[in-house]
Amino acid sequence: MPRMVIDDNSKIRVGVAIRAAFRRGYTTADLRADAIAGLVIGVVALPLSMALAIAAGAPPEHGLYTAIVAGLLIALTGGSTYSVSGPTAAFVVLLVPVTTRYGLRGLLVATLLAGLIMLAMGIAGLGRLIQFIPHPVTTGFTAGIAVVIAILQLGDLLGLGRLEGERIWERLADLGARFADVSMVDLGVGLFTLAVLIFWPRITKKIPGPLVGLTLATLVGMALAGSGNEPVTIQSLFGGIPQTIPRPSLPWSGAEIGWNEVMGLLPTAAAIALLGAIESLLCAVVADGMTGGRHDSDAELIGLGIGNIVAPFFGGFAATGAIARTATAIRAGARSPITVVVHSVFLLVAMLVLAPVLGRIPMAGMAALLLIVAWNMSDFPHFRRIARIAPRSDVIVMVACFALTVLFDMVVAVITGVVLAAFLFMRRMVEISGAQLVGGPEGHTVGGLPPGVVFYDVAGPLFFGAAEKALGALSVVGEGVHTVIIDLEDVPAVDATGLVALESIVDRINRNGAKVVISGVRPQPRRALEKAGFRDEPGKLEIGDDLDTTLRSLLKQA
């Protein structure tokens, strides 16, 4: 497989990956490889897209619309050569409450709003910032999503249909109330499908397990047809899959959307955008690791935004990079985004030709497929390992994100996770920040200081979380001290809070009758100090270049 490294210095951040592929030289051999890989992931995406749409509370064809339209557009306009985008399990927990409360119309509008946010994030160059979200946060809510997805499948697995309620405990209560109505036929079909999905990869991985499992489940369901024991199918629940090309229409068609509804959907849209960005860029990083390539994170966010803006006009909902499908495509020999184009064309043709057959797939079989997806997504061994080896603060953050996702929803979990990540970062920065007396009347580490001169070494960034701690040691100046040297060589950055704290310290030392000399100022702090009006003032403040120069100057003055 050729190593695809994106090196695009143009200001146009749309279609970076596809332009890089053609600039490298796209051959018939590349097209052949992409076509084979596209067919492979098309087979995988066909049942999975329908299952994820059903899990999100939408008719199954909308999952196909998402994979066809959003997948195609993100591949052609994004910045990752190998990423395959479409509906993913990560979004299910976010989308179910929207569908329950606002219906399909609300789901499409929320996707459109999320697309606009993603596009703005890409244009603003925020792609690289997403990678700084701590691993415990993503691990926590990913495992939580897996648990919620698994619980949501119990209704279809047991033949009870959709479990009622917005919260997990409400759905579990509904399951308990209706448990006497469990259909043994649906449960049997579901367990049979689950067994095939578990054991088939041990036989061969050349034929995708979902294709085999759902095909056998469909055959079993068809064999039971007419006996009075037929399991619930897509046909009986949704009326089948339409054999039509998705046509453009307004996402809010059928009723005008009000401002209050938009405001109600905005927090969820923001969570969709953030989670979609995290998933897509993580998917791109995984693809880079498998191929030795490199993606353009901002271009990928722009492509993600375009795909999610356009897809709702064709009935598609939230889409992001799918790690499992991307890895499958790479292993199948994908060489460019053309792989996803072939995948989208395959799904469209399959929908038009195989709709009657797809309608016969048992809902219990779909539930079994999503149970496998949930288990793989949870990565329970990794979750347990992080809980065992990580620092206590990281474990608390991970468990909190997990619990919030399961007990409440992804909006709360994502927002809380980001806030906790910020606090975690601030705590770590505070831990490495501080000021220490290392020379002068009470210290002897720095030699050659004139009488009445003390030297403080400040370390760590002076920002709003750490400035007070870092500069706290400077609040008291002993008697007989006429000059205080504050060395900022180990301070990489200063923000407004740090400037105010430093200004307060300088003023306090001046009031005690001593002069302040600031030395070793690095580029960003120097620009900040100059902008804040820090200037040399005889007898009050001097700003030196480095410690040696400062010491020589003080010795001459002594």
Structure, explained:
This protein has 558 residues and is mainly alpha-helical. It has 2 domains: 16-423, no CATH class; 433-557, STAS domain (Transcription Regulator spoIIAA, 2-Layer Sandwich), CATH 3.30.750.24. The protein is built from 22 helices and 7 strands. The chain has helices spanning 16-24, 28-55, 61-77, 92-123, 135-152, 154-157, 168-177, 184-203, 209-224, 234-238, 259-291, 297-310, 323-331, 338-358, 363-378, 380-389, 392-407, 410-432, 467-471, 496-511, 523-531, 547-557, and strands at residues 85-86, 320-321, 434-439, 453-459, 483-490, 515-519, 541-543. The strands form 2 sheets. The protein has a 5-stranded mixed sheet with strand order 3-4-5-6-7. It has a two-stranded antiparallel ribbon with strand order 1-2. Helix 5 (135-152) packs antiparallel against helix 18. The radius of gyration is 30 Å and the shape is elongated.
Concise account of the structure shown:
By secondary structure, the chain is mainly alpha-helical. It has helices at residues 16-24, 28-55, 61-77, 92-123, 135-152, 154-157, 168-177, 184-203, 209-224, 234-238, 259-291, 297-310, 323-331, 338-358, 363-378, 380-389, 392-407, 410-432, 467-471, 496-511, 523-531, 547-557; strands at residues 85-86, 320-321, 434-439, 453-459, 483-490, 515-519, 541-543.
Give a quick set of tags describing it.
558 residues; two-stranded antiparallel ribbon; elongated; 2 domains; five-stranded mixed β-sheet; mainly alpha; Transcription Regulator spoIIAA
